[in-house]
Amino acid sequence: MVEESGEGGGSQAPAGSREADLTNQIKHLREELTSAQETAAAATGHAKQYETLAKSSDEAAKVMQARSSDLFQAVQQDFIPTIRIGFERAVNTV
Q1: DSSP alpha helices (H): ranges in the chain?
Q2: What is the value of pTM for the model shown?
Q3: Which of the four, 9, 13, 64, 77, has the lowest number of CB atoms within 10 Å?
């Protein structure tokens, strides 16, 4: 922040000194801007990575759900009736 020296029209700092202060402030602000831009770019990159991971996880979950449903149907249609027939045969032979 730039502050004026003196009150109500008193003496002010020499023009060269004020210019040097402003130059230093501009340099500092440019450095802060560059740092903020780099941080924003990194955050954007991380967000894109997380988005890719989330999409990949969602797709994998859908595939697993479909396979689970297929397996459940296969058990219901094939395995359980086969076990039931085997059980009934075992009970009837006793």
Answers
A1: 15-74, 80-92
A2: 0.49
A3: 9
